[in-house]
Amino acid sequence: KTSVQISNLEENVDYFFSVVAKANDDYSEFLSDEVTMKIDPSLLIIPEISSANAINNKFLKIEFSTVMDFSNLSEVNFTLKETFDDSSLEIHKSTITDEKTVTLRTSNLKSGFEYNLEIKDIKSKDQIELTNNSLTFRTEDLDSLEEFEISEVNVLDFKGVEIIFNDEILKKDN
Predict the structure, then answer these.
(1) What is the Cα Rg of the chain in Å?
(2) Which has the closest alpha carbon to 58: 152, 117, 120, 139?
(3) pTM beyond cutoff 0.90
(4) Cβ(130)–Cβ(47) below 8 Å
(5) What is the 3-state secondary structure (H, E, C) of 10-54?
(6) Which pLDDT tens digit goes with each residue over 63-116?
(7) 13-55 pLDDT tens trace
């Protein structure tokens, strides 16, 4: 079985397809029946950012309208800014929650503020680009996570210690 994908076809245009197959080196060719098709835009599932919701002052949950291709996901795919003064927030980590959801670990989100989220270089599983790659959202009463700090140090023996932090240590994926 052989398949071919053809991209960049226009909506509401009639396309005609047929195949010429060579049977062997003796030059026997077979022409298939012609197939007609039209791209119906109502059948396409256009990916969109469904929502962006702050879970607390450090985590942002982003939901998409369809299954996405997160194979090249990283923090550089996201830009987060306060709309009031256009100041950027840092994205520390991106985590795939499920096929349609990503959670971002950010610098400090503030309650009652409006933010603009921009997403680049993420497509649906069908390789369709986002129709609108930005979303403005407002945070409400956010639970505050503590600032990152060492909460406890325990001596294990004369050669080691255990250090306990109040939050997850972020590692850069290599």
Answers:
(1) 25
(2) 139
(3) no
(4) yes
(5) CECCEEEECCEEECCCCCCEEECCCEEEEECHHHCCCCCEEEEEE
(6) 999 999 999 999 999 999 999 999 999 999 999 999 999 999 998 899 999 999
(7) 888 888 877 766 666 677 788 888 887 776 777 899 999 999 9
User: Is the pLDDT score of 170 beyond 60?
Assistant: no
Hunting for tokens 């991209």 — which residue is that? 7
DSSP string, the chain: --------PPBT-EEEE--EEE-STT--EEEPPPEEEEB-GGG-----EEEEEESSSSEEEEEESS-EE-TT--GGGEEEEETTT--EE-EEEEEEEETTEEEEEES---TT-EEEEEE-S-EETT-PBPS--EEEEE--SPPPPPPP-EEEEEEEETTEEEEEESSPPP----
**Token couple for 28:** 């026997």
Alpha-carbon torsion (173, 88, 136, 105), positive or negative: positive
